Amino acid sequence: MSKIKGVLLGMIGAGIALLYVICALCMLLVGLVGFTVPLVRDVEKSVPDHDQAIL
Question: Can you give the pTM of this predicted structure?
Answer without folding.
Answer: 0.57
